[in-house]
Specification:
The complex is a heterodimer.
Chain A: E1 9-12, H1 18-26, E2 32-36, E3 53-57, E4 72-75, E5 91-94, E6 110-113, E7 126-132, E8 146-151, E9 167-170, E10 181-184, H2 188-200, H3 204-207, H4 210-214, E11 217-221
Parallel strand pairs in A: 1-2, 2-3, 3-4, 4-5, 5-6, 6-7, 7-8, 8-9
Antiparallel strand pairs in A: 9-11, 10-11
Chain B: H1 17-29, E1 34-37, E2 49-51, E3 72-74, E4 83-85, E5 89-91, H2 101-113, E6 118-119, H3 127-132, E7 136-140, H4 149-154, E8 157-161, E9 173-174, H5 181-187, E10 195-196, H6 206-220, E11 227-232, H7 236-245, E12 250-254, E13 260-264, H8 265-270, H9 275-288, E14 296-300, H10 306-314, E15 319-322, H11 324-330, H12 338-343, H13 368-371, H14 376-400, E16 414-416, H15 419-425
Parallel strand pairs in B: 5-15, 6-7, 7-8, 8-11, 11-12, 12-14, 14-15
Antiparallel strand pairs in B: 1-13, 2-16, 3-4, 9-10
Helix pairs in contact in B: 2-14, 7-9, 10-14, 11-14
The chains are: A alpha/beta, B alpha/beta.
The structure holds flavin mononucleotide.
Chain lengths: 232, 442
């Protein structure tokens, strides 16, 4: 990493291809990149595996930041389906809204969505964290195994269906809970966890506001589906 | 005592002993049967085809002396590092979890000795298999258990699993006994639970999304690796077309007889179409798209012998994959464990309770004591021997048909032995020029 320059490298996707962009990001020469004219292109900045900062100035299509590791990626726009899917570590920040399956199966790292996230947010989550400042759509946290999801707005239908050990914190209303997902007690450790996640997402004021923290409900697994003989 | 038959008693063909036992089991437990292995019922299969060999109108090749090549390359069109296999027989995806670490290592050793690949499974990549498999295909399954971009980059090819022949539309299962600490950690699950994998991919639905998913995988791995798409044999013509349109380098087509580690019996026996019936439509799809033998077709489900391999290739496949047969070669169902099979309510040659984790042969288990019974080196050698025999058998047939490469075998080398197999494969019934539904009345 020492060899990397501090100068931000500009990549214009109306001049360069997504392939060229990703090839550069996989063997970075700089610590920071600014990408313009992303125009809803797919697979933008996928497979990053180094401690680099990437700022995308515009909307992205499918799978932006797919399988992200280590780096710090900001999308100043909207993100299409599967943004940060299977993220392992690092941070992805969407300043607009996110489409379906945001951070699906993420094993680690943090996804922050300033706007809303559509259906299946955090589906099959495996240890990653998600903070959505707006609302999330139906079937979010479906089969979520581990990790945390914070929703500052409302959650859609069937939240946490067939959930395993992921923890969900929702401030607003929940349209309906999925099978085997129940509201749970907020103990001190959960308040601390929630406050830390809000801080990580840049919501310092809210994290220090105990009334704000009080307005969340925690959801998780009733664990009645863990064995086959216990009701299909 | 005289057998019931000797005493003139008659078993019902409809309510045979297995059906009666299944009803009794259901009545007693209220739970459907889950088991491993593949379909046990008889379905039209490669046995229903015959090779014609050579005669006055066709020249054979000299056995042993004249070359008959067996190599096959995956992904030459798109991947900067295509996967080159020495033989057209690969080891199908079987998860660590379903199999012991020793079994995975043995598969790697056997396959590597013969210059072919193994495949991970629904549970991620272990060091054992990466170390011992020279060529390793990494599966991307709906569950994404243990999915790791580092492993993706370490793989020699990537296989997007849509479905499996034993359970098209279903998903992986791993019962509590097999969710050991290590398996649970790899899958991010609580230890000891009965695990059901997702049956749909979490971040794509439908063929258009699949196109973008494949593009993403190529981008992440810098267009180095061949991308396989594995699909159960159900609507092979359409699924092959869609997989190719989505950008697959390899289509893996798994017939209904295909093995499984754990699936509901009703699923194994009643969903999907036989391997034999699936190859023709898939080859037709590839041919119509102008990519037959460019986009590779791997066929699996019930491959046992070199004759099965040769017949699959002659029908248009580029390679086969084996699951059950590979496990048998390692030592599954070995008579030396006969007594122990009896103790757990089965018998050598019948054992299919792969879900239970009590495998006396140490293959489909996570019990360290049982697993320690499998010597990966010896078992790997057995697998290599078996792969060697399959290859020699396929070459024997190919030479007899005058072919200098096993993939030069063609439908014209085959005839069908039954009307069903003729109808399914479009091959003429032996001794006739009749293909049901094509020329003349049905
Ligand atoms: C023990 C066992 C575990 C399996 N696990 C997987 C798996 O994880 N992923 C997958 O795609 N297929 C899995 N399969 C199916 C095989 O990949 C393959 O499709 C099938 O075994 C081929 O049929 P055959 O057993 O008749 O050779 C498994 C099969 C067996 C026997």
């Amino acid at each position: 990493m020492e060899a990397l320059t501090d100068t931000t490298v500009e990549i214009d996707l109306s001049q360069s291809t997504v392939r060229e962009l990703n090839a550069e990001l996989h063997a970075p020469t700089s610590k920071s990149y600014r990408v313009s004219n992303s125009r809803g292109l797919h697979s933008v900045a996928v497979g990053i595996k180094d401690e680099i900062d990437v700022e995308i100035d515009g909307d992205v299509g499918y799978y932006c930041a797919g399988m992200h590791q280590k780096g710090n990626l900001t999308i100043a726009g909207m993100a299409g389906p599967g943004v940060a899917e299977n993220m392992m570590s690092g941070r992805v920040h969407i300043k607009g809204h996110a489409s379906q399956s945001a951070a699906a199966t993420a094993h680690g790292g943090l996804l922050v969505v300033d706007g809303n996230a559509s259906t299946r947010c955090g589906i099959s989550l495996k240890g990653g964290d998600i903070v959505v400042k707006g609302n999330i759509g139906a079937l979010s946290a479906f089969m979520a195994q581990a990790g945390r999801i914070v929703v500052c707005g409302d959650a859609g239908e069937a939240l946490g269906d067939s959930i395993f050990e992921a923890r969900l914190y929702v401030r607003g209303s929940v349209a309906s809970l999925g099978t085997d997902c129940i509201a749970k007690e907020m103990r001190d450790e959960h308040r601390e966890e929630l406050a830390q996640l809000l801080k990580d997402a840049g919501m310092e004021d809210e994290a220090n506001d105990s009334k704000y923290l009080d307005s969340f409900t925690r959801y998780g697994s009733a664990r009645t589906l863990y064995h086959f003989n216990s009701g299909e | 005592m005289r057998s019931p038959e000797d005493r003139g008693l008659r078993e019902s063909a409809i309510f045979d002993k297995a059906s009666i036992a299944a009803i009794q089991h259901a009545a007693e437990t209220g739970i459907y049967d889950i088991r491993g292995w593949g379909a046990k019922r008889a379905v039209p299969h490669f046995d229903d085809l015959l090779f014609l060999g050579s005669a006055i109108s066709r020249y054979p090749m000299e056995g042993y002396r004249e070359r008959c090549d067996t190599d096959v390359t995956m992904g030459a069109e798109n991947a900067s590092k295509p996967m080159e296999l020495d033989i057209p027989i690969t080891i199908a995806g079987m998860s660590f979890g379903a199999l012991s670490a020793q079994a995975k290592e043995a598969l790697g050793r056997g396959a590597s000795a013969m210059g072919t690949s193994t495949t991970t499974g629904d549970g991620g990549m272990t060091d054992e298999e990466r170390t011992h498999s020279d060529k390793l295909v990494y599966q991307l399954l709906p569950s994404r258990y243990g999915m790791n971009p580092d492993h993706l980059r370490q793989a020699d090819a990537i296989e997007v699993v849509v479905s499996q022949g034993a359970k098209p539309g279903g998903s992986g299962m791993l019962l509590g006994q097999k969710i050991s600490e290590r398996v649970a950690a790899m899958r991010t699950l609580p230890e000891g639970i009965d695990q059901r994998s997702a049956c749909r991919h979490p971040d794509w639905t439908g063929p258009d999304d699949l196109t973008l998913k494949i593009q993403e995988l190529r981008e992440i791995t810098d267009w180095e690796k061949p991308i396989h798409v594995k699909v159960a044999a159900t609507r092979p013509y359409y699924d092959t077309k869609l997989a190719v349109a989505a950008g697959a380098d390899v289509v893996v087509l798994d017939g209904m007889q295909g093995g499984t580690a754990a699936t509901q019996e009703v699923f194994i026996e009643h969903v999907g179409i036989p391997t034999l019936a699936a190859i023709g439509p898939a080859v037709r799809a590839l041919t119509e798209m102008g990519v037959h033998r460019k986009v590779k077709l791997i066929v699996s489900g019930g491959i046992r012998t070199g004759a099965d391999v040769a017949k699959a290739l002659a029908l248009g496949a580029d390679s086969v994959a084996i699951g059950t047969a590979a496990l048998i070669a390692l030592g599954d169902n070995d008579p030396r464990w006969a007594e122990e099979y009896e103790k757990i309510g089965s018998a050598a040659g019948y054992y299919d309770d792969f879900q239970a984790g009590q495998d006396p042969a140490g293959i489909t288990t996570q019990d360290p004591k049982l697993a320690a019974r499998l010597d990966p080196v010896a078992a790997g050698k057995r697998l290599a021997n078996y792969l060697q025999v399959l290859t020699l058998e396929a070459q024997t047939i190919a030479r007899a048909c005058g072919k200098s490469h096993v993939t030069h075998l063609e439908p014209e080398d085959l005839v069908a032995l039954t009307i069903e197999s003729a109808a399914m494969t479009g091959l003429p019934l032996a001794g006739t020029e009749w293909v049901p539904g094509r020329n003349g009345d049905l």
